[in-house]
Amino acid sequence: MPRTVHIVSTALLACLPSMSWAISDSAMRDALDAARNQQWERIDMRAIDDHILSGYITYHRLRGQLPDVSPDTVNRYIDTHSDSPLSTWMRGQAIDQYGEAGRRSDVRAVSNGEPSGTARQCHYHTAHLDTAPQQAAQAGLRLWHVGQSQPNACDPLFERLRANGIIDDDAIWDRLMLAWQAGNAGLADYLSARLSPAWQTAIDTYQTVASNPQALLNSPTCLGPECAATATFYQAAMQRLIHDDTPQALAVWRTLAERLSLLPSDQRRIEEELAYYVLVREVPNSMAWVDRVLPRLESERVLELRVRRALQARQWDDVRQWITQMPTRQQEDARWQYWLARAHQQLGNQTVAETLFQQAASQRNFFGFAAAERLGQPLALNNQRYYFDEASRQRIAQLPVVKRTQALLRIGEAGLANSEWLYAVQQASTQEARALADFAAAQGWHARLVQTTIAGGMWDALEWRFPQAYYDDFIHWGRSTGVDPYLLMAITRRESAYNPNALSPAGARGLMQLMPGTAAQVSRQLGLDDPGPYGVLDPALNIRLGSTYLRDKLQRYQGNRLAAAAAYNAGPGRVDRWLAENSIETFDLFVERIPYRETRDYVQAVLTYRAIFESLANGSSDGVALLSDGEKQVRYDRALVARD
């Protein structure tokens, strides 16, 4: 054979596997599209029979044949694909279809415990009413006690429980009150019509108070047979009033509490909700009442708000008092260790303060890092590294789940690929999950890697949780705009966890979660065309526009990253208003004063992530600061907003 022919032949042979893949993948892509639409005449089974994804075609075939497929056939499929989410999906489809067809024994045959989803749970427990009546009845009551309409699949279950007296008038009244609380008038009317005449006074009272909340003060203290409706009525009525008009609710409750004879648990539920909203909405002249009831509420969220109100007023002894009344688990959070230390510091107990700062500084979060800086010590990364050799990666590469994930990515099914991958992580042992994370890191699957650490609970694997994704773009556009690249990385990590196609419910898009209007505005500012809703998903462009937008926010707040991060999340108008309405002398009090929990958490996360990214890049946290001196020393008020 001539040498040239030999070389060409060798090259062709080397390309054959990838060419075969491409042909097979193309056939699978077409087959999957046809299978989803039950268009079986379009599928050449011979072309895909040996494909790693052939189970997806079988899934859609069985799905289309249900319920006219035996449970044995379904279970064989589930067993064959037990390492794939296909098994869970098939089980769910079978429960749906067998349940709708009334084939209770078949539902039992394919079930392996209570499924997820309300409709499937109703099918499941209906199927077990005769074989496990007590458990099915308890579950049925749980599904009944909600304030919204349930799926039609629940009707047979509820009808059986109603017929045998398990769903009685008490249960109907309880659900009526839940529907009232939820504002579901249609369901409330439906339930009212199903109560016996003995409940008419309770129904009339509910309807009167629903239209005139002030009538609550004159409502009977005994409602329903043997006062069975009283507690749930007053809980529902007070919750509606608390949400609609908290000051009035407080005034009404101060009168009602003296004349009602409720169980302590029922009274505590009302007062916990009322205290929470009184503090959230800062109702005037309410603190004495809150302080009187708070010790018996056993409520972490109310204690948190009470401490924040004390911080707002700089009442350091109250800060100390209420933190020490928190449950031990809550007190051990760095946030409350930090504030307890600050309180002792303000009260002159420096030795106690330093001990508490030291405890807080052991944790890897915003207040842990802030405590470390007060002590002048490095930030505690608590980083855990895991090492895998090439042999381990080769072994992982041969796992069917990895091959399916890669094949799904090749045919453009990223969503299914993620489902396969995360299912494997959730089913894996701790060591196997780490090996999967290592493989994802080696593949450069940044978003999938982050999700792997979440699914596998690898909270200390910082190189995996905070990978150097899109590193060159962050460095380039950070330098071009004058924005710290680590801050850009932190914003992106918080916004999208590196998913370039991320889409929020509000419509924000891409790595840095830009709203289409913001992307268009910044593009005009840069002399670029409007990228549109899909162009903005381009990672490099998204980072360019996001870094420019963040630069503008930093300039607006004179380089203050706390205010700029808050504006990136909540909008500059809100941050301007918060600064105008307050004059706060320290950064930590400013963070606690941010009224939206989402934005408070966001600001803390972004500054914490930024410090982690810089520490990982440097190899340690030595010399890495959570905040600049200016951010620690500036007063957070209207003067922080730069004037044009």
From TrEMBL:
Transglycosylase SLT domain residues are: 474-584
Q: Which UniProt keywords apply?
A: Signal
- Family statement: Belongs to the transglycosylase Slt family.
**Single Gene Ontology BP term?**
peptidoglycan metabolic process
**Name this polypeptide is given:** Soluble lytic murein transglycosylase
Q: Which Pfam families does the entry link to?
A: SLT (PF01464), SLT_L (PF14718)
SUPFAM superfamilies according to UniProt:
Bacterial muramidases (SSF48435), Lysozyme-like (SSF53955)
Q: What range(s) does the Lytic transglycosylase superhelical linker domain occupy? A: 396-462
Q: Does the keyword Ligase apply?
A: no
- The source's superkingdom equals Bacteria
Report the GO molecular function annotations: hydrolase activity, hydrolyzing O-glycosyl compounds; peptidoglycan lytic transglycosylase activity
> Which InterPro entries does this UniProt record tie to the protein?
Lysozyme-like_dom_sf, Lytic_TGlycoase_superhlx_L_sf, Lytic_TGlycosylase_superhlx_L, Lytic_TGlycosylase_superhlx_U, Transglyc_AS, Transglycosylase_SLT_dom_1
So which residues are the signal peptide here? 1-22
Q: List GO terms (cellular component aspect).
A: membrane; periplasmic space
